[in-house]
Automatic annotation (TrEMBL), chain A:
It comes from Luteitalea pratensis. Involved in targeting and insertion of nascent membrane proteins into the cytoplasmic membrane. Acts as a receptor for the complex formed by the signal recognition particle (SRP) and the ribosome-nascent chain (RNC). The lineage of its organism: Bacteria, Pseudomonadati, Acidobacteriota, Vicinamibacteria, Vicinamibacterales. This is Signal recognition particle receptor FtsY. One of its GO terms (cellular component) is cytoplasm. Keywords: Cell membrane, Cytoplasm, GTP-binding, Hydrolase, Membrane, Nucleotide-binding, Receptor. The keyword Ion transport does not apply. CDD domains: FtsY. GTP binds at residues 113-120, 195-199, 259-262. Part of the signal recognition particle protein translocation system, which is composed of SRP and FtsY.
Length: 310, 306
């Protein structure tokens, strides 16, 4: 018998026993305090069940505690907590900073994040989205490190039918960004979307490279980069908070693209990030096709967060 | 930031007064801390519950070791249970009698399959093997080029019939080439896919049927959160997993997903990936991952001596 089988059988008997103290202070539900998943509607009637629901979508212990506490203050005995927690999360998400506005041309958008989150794919989709809105994006390949990263991005820009400035392998990423901005000015293209190599936020040297890119961009266009979007993989756990914090510190991240929401993970850590750092989600990725990127809609997201998709 | 589990437990027990012993009540208090620490390390909620139960069972009637404080004693039980979960593994690949050895790489999008394919090829060469790699990823832009470049860096051959965009026939082509030219190991890289994407899971089943792999390595990102049991569980159910590679361990993620994945698939972790370079692959050491999940390095050695 696998550990998982064993854990399944042991789950029932210990439920509640573990959180006894927690539950006493919570508004206890008439039905005994567990989440009831009906055929259509789901009710959450105890702080215990609410905690489980939030932790399970990666909101994290600290943010979950704060949310549960706030909901508990508002709830009365026997209430379904789900609408309350929805409103709570909605207000957290809507309380995040609004997107920056700039009159500068070209607008420079830097895409950053740890390895494999979906940066390159999201640039392809974003270029397509902006083009459909009537803009004329230029995509800049500043990932000069990963094998075939430039080729990958080039294919995306062909699909989106937008301008592309490529880098020589192992050339200086900041130099490519410089070239791209010059090219955008000359060809009247706007915005410039910069793909960067995946890097862990703990790699000091690689993080410095982002700082250099930023400085070069700032020299060429007033206020650039105007948007720095952190690409966060929806499957990420609590490390997402550390990623957001570091990328914010070093590269001035001011928004999030949450990718891979078409899976079973919901990226709940973005709620913790919105709460802690006021970083807004700007776009969400929902697949590998070119039109699988949409502007973030907080209400839809909150609905999806508590949907048993699977 | 995060306080290590042992510090936390030390504090908790210190607050209980000088004469604390492990009683059902004090154990319960310790378990609450353990639960919190594991959740913060991204161990799956259900796995945490089951784990805490096991620790409770053992802690309540643990024989008292005079040399350890109650806090350390609980940590020791937690550590032992975790090591037991990871099993008695040496890391690396188990010996096989079949030739050629066929390794199928599995996993979600972006987890590190292609990079790990290159790392593994390099590792095998070091072991005196003659690997050949093949990409069956005909969907991600430039995925085949990526593997070709990675293979070149690793100094191994990539089977790449120009224009063949059928994943199954690419994989069987590599089998044929290996047999004819005498390669002893084939690593089949696959496209990243979601465990709930039925069409692509069917494709994976077809590749598996064509190459009859000896090893099915699930590549899991060490930064994964609660979802780890769903994805790994479903890959295991549909195609089977014989070993796990935990990638991106070079960051500061606590890596609780390691526990979740191993719990759900019930097989050992074979390797950890610790960087983007091809030499950044290590045979799995359970104790390192345990220290990391628990957020403590030196405490373990202290307990070891008791
Ligand atoms: N299912 C799904 N897959 C996605 C999504 N976005 C990206 N991907 C896939 O995730 C994988 C990694 O995407 P990339 O765009 O290469 O990620 P990256 O961040 O540029 O990776 P590096 O440059 O290597 O750090 C690819 O297989 C993409 O097709 C999404 O929204 N949903
Ligand atoms: N820091 C770090 N990065 C890694 C590690 N393993 C892989 N990567 C990086 O993660 C990103 C994704 O790796 P890939 O090998 O392309 O992942 P994949 O699973 O093949 O992706 P798909 O084919 O799109 O599903 C790349 O930027 C790799 O360089 C690791 O152990 N540490
Ligand atoms: Mg990329
Ligand atoms: Mg790949």
């Amino acid at each position: 018998m696998s550990f998982f089988d064993r854990l399944k059988s042991s789950l029932q008997k210990t439920k509640d026993q573990l959180f006894g103290a927690f539950e006493e202070s919570a508004a206890p539900a008439a039905s005994g305090g567990t989440a009831t998943v009906g055929t259509r509607t789901r009710r959450i009637e105890s702080a215990d069940a609410l905690e489980e629901a939030l932790i399970t979508c990666d909101v994290g212990v600290a943010a979950t505690d704060r949310i549960v506490e706030s909901v508990r203050r508002k709830a009365r005995r026997g209430d379904d907590l789900l609408p309350l927690v929805r409103e709570e999360i909605l207000s957290i998400l809507q309380g995040a900073a609004p997107p920056p506005v700039t009159g500068a041309h070209p607008r420079v958008v830097l895409i950053v994040g740890v390895n494999g989150t979906g940066k390159t794919t999201s640039i392809g989709k974003l270029a397509n989205l902006l083009k459909q809105e009537g803009q004329k994006p230029l995509v800049c390949a500043a990932d000069t490190f990963r094998a075939a990263a430039v080729e990958q991005l080039e294919i995306w820009t062909r699909r989106a039918d937008v301008g592309f400035v490529r880098a020589q392998p192992n050339s200086d990423p900041a130099a490519v960004v410089f070239d791209a901005i010059q090219s955008a000015k000359a060809r009247q293209l706007d915005p410039v979307l910069v793909d960067t190599a995946g890097r862990l936020h703990t790699r000091v040297n690689l993080m410095k490279e982002l700082d250099k890119i930023k400085r070069v961009a700032a020299r060429e266009v007033e206020g650039a980069p105007h948007e720095v979007l952190l690409v966060l993989d929806a499957t990420v756990g609590q490390n997402g908070v550390a990623q957001a914090r570091e990328f914010m510190k070093v590269s001035g991240v001011n928004g999030i693209i949450l990718t891979k929401l078409d899976g079973t993970a919901k990226g709940g850590v973005a709620v913790a990030i919105a709460q802690d750092l006021r970083l807004p989600i700007r776009y969400v990725g929902t697949g590998e096709q070119i039109d699988d990127l949409v502007p973030f809609n907080p209400r839809e997201y909150v609905d999806a967060l508590f949907e048993d998709a699977w | 930031m995060f306080d290590s589990l042992s510090n936390r437990l030390q504090d908790v027990f210190a607050n209980l007064g000088r004469e604390v012993r492990l009683t059902p009540e004090t154990v319960e208090i310790a378990l609450r801390e353990i639960r919190m620490a594991l959740l913060e390390a991204d161990v799956n909620f259900k796995v945490v519950k089951a784990f805490v139960d096991k620790v409770r069972d053992r802690a309540v009637d643990a024989e008292v070791l005079k040399s350890l404080s109650p806090g350390q004693q609980v940590v020791r039980i937690v550590r032992d249970e975790m090591l037991a979960l990871f099993g008695d593994t040496q890391g690396g690949l188990p010996p096989v009698s079949a030739t050629p050895r066929v390794i199928l790489m599995l996993g979600l999008q972006g987890s590190g399959k292609t990079t790990t394919t290159g790392k593994l090829a390099k590792w095998l060469v070091k072991q005196g093997k003659h690997p050949i790699v093949v990409s069956t990823d005909v969907r991600r832009p430039a995925a085949i080029e990526q593997l070709n470049l990675v293979a070149k860096q690793a100094g191994v051959r990539a089977h790449d019939p120009a224009g063949n965009l059928d994943p199954v026939s690419r994989a069987s082509g590599a089998m044929q080439e290996a047999r004819t030219l005498g390669y002893d190991t084939i690593i089949v890289d696959t496209a990243g896919r979601l465990h709930i994407d039925d069409e692509l899971m069917v494709e994976l089943e077809a590749i598996k049927a064509a190459v009859q792999p000896t090893d099915q390595l699930y590549v899991a990102d060490a930064m994964t959160g609660q979802d780890a049991i769903k994805s790994a569980g479903e890959f295991n159910r549909r195609v089977g997993v014989t070993g796990v590679v935990l990638s991106k361990m070079d960051g500061d993620a606590r890596g609780g997903a390691a526990l979740s994945v191993v719990s759900v698939v019930g097989v050992p972790i074979a390797f950890t990936g610790s960087g983007e370079r091809l030499e950044d692959l290590e045979a799995f050491h359970p104790d390192r991952v345990v220290s990391r999940v628990l957020g403590m390095g030196d405490v373990l050695s202290l307990i070891e001596k008791a």
